[in-house]
Structure formats: structure tokens, C-alpha cells
Amino acid sequence: MMANSVRRADFLMLLAYATDLATGAERDFALRGCVLSMRLAKVAGFDVEGQRGVFHQALLRYAGCNADTHLLAAAFGDEIAMRQDLAHTDMGNHHQLVDVFVRAFGRLYADRPATELPALVEHGLSHALHTSVPILAGHCEVAQRIGVRLGLSPELCAGLGQIYERWDGHGLPHGLKGEAVAPAVRLVTLAQDVVVLLSLRGKDAMLAAIAERRDGAYEAALADVFLAHADELIAGIDHAFGRADILALEPQPHAYLEDAACEEAYLAIADMIDMRMPFTFGHSRAVAALAEAAARRLGLPQTDIAAVRNAGLVHDIGELAVPVSTWMKPSPLSPREIDSAHLHPYHGERALAALGAEGRPEAELVGNHHERIDGSGYHRGARGPALSPTARVLAAAEAFQTARETRPYRDALSDKAAAALLRQAVEAGRLDAEAVEAVLGAAGQPSRRAKAQPAGLTPREIEVLRLIASGLTAKEAAQRLKISPKTADNHIQNLYAKIGVTTRAGAALYALEQGLVRTQSSPD
Q1: Which residues contact 471 (CB under 8 A, 6 or more apart)?
Q2: pLDDT digit string (tens) for 106-157?
Q3: Residue 389: alpha-carbon gap to chain centroid
């Protein structure tokens, strides 16, 4: 379960990682952009509130980039590849922009006869801006709404509505110019472009590009400050920055989210993930609700119930690394596309590392949500005891909900047919029988009664068992659970009697055999 309060900046970093995946950016691009942005803000003389705006703008700039991605993919093909091209393009340079569109159409129509390509490209170019502007406007609006749901001030949210605007007024969708563009937007646009250009073209070419775009894409005075201090500002910017580095950059006072606000943050991220494609709208919310209800039916501890719900909300965050054009295919995926798709649990687990130790249970569940107990799942091929009861519940909930949803390559199954499909997976040894029955019962399907926990252990006894299995003494377990040592000892003696052991070592082995021990695996 999440702590009583969580730094809001942790959720900002989670969203930043997600947008890096969706835009095809280099690893930790948003974090490096945040570091450079905050350095530049200080050198440029931004006050504390100005720096706060820069911090949030840098991490959330592309939080709305999933809006209507299916339309982007339909018009331009692989949207991630196109976004990679756009990242180092001067959007105010007509020739550069046309080149990006031409490359996109070349990928989109790669399987068409060469004789047809000129006409197809010409038609695409004639509609490119007409198609793009409403989509970009949607990105801005969604980013603002996510900011509101995270509790950001109106001033901070205003900048999220200007992410594609430029100093010279040649930006989109409103063509704002000069001082009408928020200071944080002007600065973060420059800083993020520096990170991209430095990586792709090297220092000299980057400096030349910034100077060339001075008083165009970038405010002249701000570009001059950067150019005058470039060496100190970009020092070490290509290094990896961790969670602690970013948290240290946030101006005081730091914002914390209590339980209800954490729940809303998870819901906002779920909605951001699902809005890439119409057929996934609401998918993560539905999976989370099923998994939560099934975990309750199984009598799992409240900590597990909270973790599996949170994990259900963000389980598909790693899918953002895969182009929408892949998910939209009506035909079977190629081996290469399958490999890419099968890595999305890995990417999701890595993304949740932004939440630190508090998010470790959710990260583990997201990393395992496509694993199967016979080892036939992905991406690790984990099996048996390596999969906790909550992991088995989430896998069943995701499988059932997905089966009931339409996909480009198949129609949705009825609830009855989806239930039969899951029971077939149980018979084949892929899904856990009790987890499946709990999910089906939660979905209102006729099901066998969900079995109680192993040996009749209570949720509290499971919590105590996990703690002593991890090496804690009875006193330490009592402190962790905020109960008296005597109560903890009573739980220990009761659970020992139920599982038929007399030592901590025996209890630890039992917990491992039953899949009740949370692993400390790292997605790296």
C-alpha cells in the first residue's frame, strides 16, 4: 500500500517516463531536460515561483501526448518515429517540417507500388496541418486536465496548454507570440531542444542551432543567457539522473498527495494510458476494479488489495513504447513486433521505479501481469511460486477484461465466452484456478467459491508471515504493523500452528512455496 502521503513529484516523474516512451525519446530524456531547465532558470534569474513553473513544465510537458494518437497513426503511420524526427526539427522551418512529413508518409506507404507514392505523399502533405492542429490542441487540453487532477495551480496548468507555442508566434495551435507564451514554456522548450540536439548532433552543431533559432523559436534574451553559460549548463547533462536528483530540484514547499489524491493521480495516469486508442478507453479502470474485487473475495490483506488496484490502473503504461500502428493492426504481428510488445511489462516496471520504495509492490505486479504459472508468459517467463497471489489475480483480471473488449483483429467475447476462455487457460496450467474464479465471481459470472488463503491464514497473519519471512523479529514486525509485540507473537504462534511449522525458517520456506513473499527484483 502507498504511504499515507507521497511526494507529488514522484507521480510527475512517472508521467515523465511514460511520455519518454510515447515520444520515442532517449532514456531519461525528460529528467535530463528537467535538470538543464532548472539550471537555466537559476542562471536566468527566475524567482522561486518561476522555478516551480519550470520544474512542473519540464516533467509534464508531454503529459497529454496520448490524446487521439490513433488519428495521428492513421494519418502518418508510426507516430513514435515521426515524433523522434520532429524532436530535432525547427517547427518554424517549412522545408524541415515537410521533410519530416515526407519521411512519415514514406514509412506509411512503404508497401504500396512506387508509382503510387508521389500522389499519396502529395495528398498527405495537403492534409497534414489540417489533421495535426486539432490533435495538438487535444494534447494541450489533456495535459492541462491532468495537471488539474494532480492538484496543480491554474498558473502551472496554463503552461501545459502552450506546449507547442513559440516566441515568434509560429507555434501551434493558437500562434501565441512573445510575452503571451508563459516564461516556463519558453525556457523548457529551449532546454529540451538543447538536450536533443546535443545528443544527436554534438555540442558545436547544437550551439549553432540555438543561435540560428534565437528570436525565432526561442526568446532572444533567454537564448543569449544559455549561449553565454552553455559550458556550465550542459556539464554532465548526458549522465543518468535518479529519483533523488530530481526530487532535490523541486522548490520548497514540496507538495504531498494524501490517500484520495494518490488515488486520483493513479486514475489520471490510467486515463492518460488508455486514451491512445478508442478500444482501450476505460480498460485500465476496469482491470483495476476487477482485480481489487477479486483480491477482496480471496481475503487478501488490505495492502495487497491496494497494490493490485493501483497496479491495475497503470499496468499498461509500458505499452506506450510500442507504436499505436502496431496495436491497430488487423493482421498478426511480425516476430519483431511481438518482441516489442512483449517488453511492455518491463517498461512498465521501470516506469514505476519513479515512485521509489512505496511503489515497489505495484512495480512488481506490473512487471508480472503477463506472466503465467506454467512459465509461458512474458517477459521473464516466471512460473509457479515466483508469482504471488496478487500477481495471479491481476493476470486473470487483465485476461478476462481484454477478452471482453474489441480489438482490431477480433470481436469482443461475451462474458460467458470470456469466462470459458479463462477456464481453458486454467486447465492448460497457465492461469491460477482460484484467481480466475475470484475474478469471474467479481464480474458477476457463476463461479466456484473462491478458496480462502492457504491453511486458513487471515490477512493479518499473512502480513506477519511476510515480515518474519523477510528476517524481521516479532518486535520489529509489531513496529512495522503498529501493533503490540504480544499481539504479533500471538499471530506468529497461530500461523505456525496453521501451517505446521515451529521455526521462522520453516515459516519462511512455506511463504516462499505459497508465493507469499514479495521479491525485490529490479527491472534494470
Answers
A1: none
A2: 999 999 999 999 999 999 999 998 898 999 999 999 999 999 999 999 999 9
A3: 23
Query: What residues have CB less than 8 Å from 395, skipping those under 6 apart?
Result: 368, 369, 370, 371, 372, 377, 387, 431, 432, 435
Q: In 3D, which of 505, 380, 491, 372 has the Cα closest to residue 431?
A: 372
CATH number of 6-247: 1.10.3210.10
- Is there a shared CATH topology between the 6-247 domain and the 277-451 domain? yes
Q: pTM to 2 decimals?
A: 0.83
Digit-coded pLDDT (tens) for 70-86: 899 999 999 999 999 99
Task: Retrieve residue 260's grid coordinates.
Answer: 484520495
- Please state the domain extents for the chain: 6-247, 277-451, 455-513
Grid coordinates representing 351? 516506469
Q: What is the DSSP string of 36-81?
A: HHHHHHHHTT--HHHHHHHHHHHHHTTTTTTTTHHHHHHHHS-HHH
The CATH code for residues 455-513 is: 1.10.10.10
Q: Distance between CA atoms of 157 and 141, rounded to whole angstroms?
A: 10
Nearest to 87 by CA among 194, 241, 210: 194
Q: Which CATH fold would you assign to the domain 277-451?
A: Hypothetical protein af1432 (1.10.3210)
DSSP designation for 103: H
